[in-house]
Amino acid sequence: MSQDLSSLTQDGLAAIAAATDERMLDDARIAYLGKKGSITAASAQMKSLPNEEKPAFGAALNEARNTINHAIDEKKLALQTAADAKSVEGIDLTLPGRQIPVGALHPITQVKDEAIQILRRMGFALADGPEIEDEFHCFDALNTPADHPARNEKDTFYFDSGKLLRTHTSSVQVRNMEKQTPPVKIIAPGSAYRRDEIDATHLSVFTQLEGLFVDKDVTLADLKGTLEYFYKALFGPETETRFRPHFFPFTEPSFEIDIKLVAKGQEPKWIEVAGCGMVDPAVFSAICESRKDETFSPDNITGFAFGMGIDRLAMIKWGIRDIRALIENDTRFLSQFA
User: Fold this and answer.
1) What strands lie across the sheet with 302-309, from one edge to the other?
2) How far apart are CA 71 and CA 68, in angstroms?
3) What are 67-122's pLDDT values in tens digits?
4) What is the model's pTM?
5) Residues 137-162: pLDDT tens digits?
6) Which CATH superfamily is domain 108-337 in?
7) Cα first-last separation, the chain
8) Going by fewer Cβ within 10 Å, which terminus of the chain is more open, N or C?
């Protein structure tokens, strides 16, 4: 019986040695060690042997299996080594490697993410809303009169249905006040659309970030402190800001915010970055009318709002002179910010 096992082992080793690929090698394994393999079948004969012969036969079976398994492992390694060598035939391994391009976030996305992180640390929650809006949420609720230039079809993208592409993300503020109760402290980043002529400083679609804080006893000092901290966190602790009186229909008093831009080799200059102000009582009254309650009665609450263009912030942060470079998708330009 042991002689038969020895013969089977030699036949198995020969089949393994003759294998020229992994499929032939697996066929040899199955033929000898598989469920119906030769050595597996030989092991079934053990039950018919006398008890005194079983230990020797069992040891021979184990040796045969181990020998074939070891041979299979060595052959598999040899086949893999040969395949690896063939795959690099004709390749000069002394040549320098090719650099793999690494992707990165778009500069607008980088600035938007950083701005969101700063404001989130100050307790603002993220809010979102539809980009296709109705006139109530985009204009009426924000105290924008019917004859306001922003409502003219020359300035705004209207649909035949009467709806429009939102001109600012202030509509998100309105929708949140309709659903929530004070305190409301949100930021609304997203796209806004206007019929601006595309030039070095204007696009017809841009990324805006607006903020709203409504509660009891919110003051102008809260607004000023919030935005001064924000711009110092975004542009550096030495950043100077100033607030200039302005007019917006939805805030009173209203301000435009400038920061002092210091560029190497140039005289420092002030540049506008945002608009802001205390929420106009007329806006709160419109919200109460929409909600059909007095939750946002201007007699009980105050609030501030602000809005800024993320594209403009990106231009300031990296000294980009033409806003069109941000939408042309020229990888030679964008790779600078990777």
Assistant:
1) 125-126, 184-193, 205-215, 302-309, 269-279, 251-261, 241-248
2) 5
3) 888 888 898 898 898 888 888 788 887 888 888 877 889 999 999 999 999 999 99
4) 0.70
5) 999 999 998 888 888 888 899 999 99
6) Bira Bifunctional Protein; Domain 2 (3.30.930.10)
7) 72
8) C
